[in-house]
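Hey everyone, long-time lurker, first post.

I ran two proteins through the pipeline my lab uses and got sequence/structure pairs for each. Pasting them in order. The first:
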Amino acid sequence: MSSTHKPTRRGRRTVARHGELSSPSPFAFILKIVGIVAAVVLVSGVGVAAYAATDVVASFADGAVELEGQDAVPPDIGAIEGGVDILLVGTDECEEEYAYLFGARCTGADAGGQLNDVNMLVHISDNPRRVTVVSFPRDLMIPIPSCTREDGSTTSATSKTQINEAWGYGGLSCVAKTVSDLSGQNIPFAAKVSFGNVINITDAIGGVDVCIGNGGIKDKYTGINWGPGQRTIQGVEALQFLRTRHGLENGSDLARISNQQQYMSSLARKLVSSEVLSDPATLYKLATTAVDNITPSESLVNPMTLVQIALAIKNVPFEDINFVQFPVNEDPADPNRVVPNERLAAELWAALAANEPIELTNDQNNTGGVVTVDPQPTDPPVETAPTPDATGTPAPTETAVPLDDIPGQSAADQTCSAGNVRATD
């Protein structure tokens, strides 16, 4: 596979280049990464080992948040029953240890405040188990419901507000309520994560391997000037990679989401590899690093619940772990914002509700964020005999539901960044 291979583009559509007219604070980008890290930790099956230690569990429970209007799922012995949804929220807060990296955003006169710039819904299906991680663009314009603040006061509902302002209306609980209303899903579990986690997580597991395509990435806003090919990124390099937008072919925030999905898939494969799972010291370091930067809902602090979730998804194959972008259209009122694509969103939620396998048929080469690796690496075929029914006829196989025009990839897919080496202004 040539790292400079650039497939022919077909049917490219213009996407909203929201946020492109100015260079958003790098601080806000980091939170996207934290959401990615937390999602992959949850879907990779690390939870059983991670929460075996009492001190880790105790730390995780500090500052837990009650979720308004969401039905709780009581813990039990064994894998959690039925389907379940977990919301992961990343906020752009200034942590003392990393504030120096972000200049005026954390040290200037206007420093402070939090936005939920990362909003990821992790859907775990009932048997057969599948995992779908739905990422909501930060510039998505939607209604925000009335929410209850920590002091007991309530906010007024809005008809059209940027999703990353929901945190300011009522914290984690309000974000969960907002996404629940948008998706129609009951969300019994949620967690808020901080941006510093990405540095510690990537260091804890020895880095994540990514692929740079299109001749390389050059982006003065993130400090990247990397050539093409495979690259192991750690710490600040991981932040640079996941922040980059100008370094991508399309230059939009939606392209950045596609590039981040490459990282998610690679991280998932790294976390379940023997290199991590067979090393108790690495697992413990990973667990303690993660919980130091996570504020969970009260429903998520019970160690038995965490074990239940881990047991439910520990054997899900990579091809059934999908990272998808919530389908959107350009906002008619503002080309730098997006609104829900109601038709495609309905198809997505219907497939999840029916627990049907999904097939992401959208051409990833059209996102402007990644290019596909051709051919994809494959494992040797495993010969299995068909299971006959009572008549001797082979048992039927499930047919995947094609989700056209919804960007995303499975954890089994390997892609390369759609790099842009032209000078950035």
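...and the second, right after it:
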Amino acid sequence: MKQVEKHDYDIFVKELAKIDIPHEQLEESRRNSVIRFQKEKRNRQRTWKSIVVTCALLLLFVTSIRVSPAFASAIAKIPGFAPLVEMITYDKGVKDILHNNYYEDLGLSQTKNGLSFTLQGVIADETGMILPYTFSAPFDVHDLETKKMELRLNGEVLPAGISYSWYSEKETSLIEDKFVFSFKNPINYDNANFELYIQFADEKQTEFTIPFSLKKPIAKTKSYELNEKMSFEGQQITIKSVSISPLRTGVTIALDPHNDQRILGFDDIRLLDEKGEEWTTINNGLTATGNLIDGEETFFMQSNYFREPKKLTLSIGKVKALPKGQDFIEVDFNQKKVLSKPPLSGLKVQVNKHMVTINVPTSYENKNISLLGTAIDANGETVYSNSGSYHRPDDYVIEQTETYDIKGVANPVRIYFSHYENFLDGTQTVDIPLK
């Protein structure tokens, strides 16, 4: 080392020696750092343990509800759980949604004029949304009606079908259910801000506007073009396509216009995987779009979106059909008279000024079925019904009363059947090309 450099070095050492180093504070800081690191490590471990436990509880929750009615009944009594219990009980696709953490919790509440509304969460895909909710008040709300309901996207009302059950048969201060919105066209979820708007028919016309947005990515629909033909006693149909989204599976079926029978519907549509597990039609909520009387309809089924089957087969059977010309009743509302009806076993029809009551036998138990579909007047115009009710008495007869808007209607009116239990023989299958 050179002399100059050694001199500078000695000066530097002497200056360092003059500095008062806080040894006790440094040691305390070191100890605190170690403690903080260990605490953060425990917190991370605790967080992962919490996630694992939560997933395990969710799996137990989802599985137990489908296996044990008693467990489902107990869970449904917990505020906010009833809609999820119902969905899991009747739809295996929703079970998969919860199991795969696709459900998004919201917990957004508002209270106005003594009414409290909570938007519990959302399940969304390209086809629509399910919005579980709870609604309560310090008084009976079992027959409180909704006056208006909208789902808005970035301030604009979404064109969507709405399915929900609001009315309760007995007095209650709490209603727990779900709104099901079915989009007419896929929507763009990028930078999407939603609002659920509800107006009630109480004295103050109470309104709720609940904004929400989604954090989880939206799953893309899996689409399969088939164009496979099936034949039932000479009646031809074409399975055009199958689309599978988290909320539902859509099966689009077209009818051959040269059929001599009109196909009313399909009471047995199911998807089966290589293990024989099956997904059937939806029991509540939107079941179809389109109309077979127009030649094409899309039927909705439970979804197996989150499964990765090696093989998937579509099975169709119990095809309902009536000979063309015997697939409608003809009535005159002015004369309050049934002009013609097909010679179907057990069929009874009554008409008054604007209502039609029809009875047909059924082999089904505990199944609400709509008997009457499209109505056409003498000028070829559609006659709309503004209310309808149907039920199954204990004597295996379906009775339905339909009320029609007959203003400006040209009699006679043909009302076509949407259901009658006249089944064509056979079951047909087609494999869905998964790859």
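Reply from user beta_strand_b:
Welcome! Quick read of the second one: Confidence is low (pLDDT under 50) at residues 1-6, 11-19, 43-79. Residues 221 and 245 are 5 Å apart (CA to CA).
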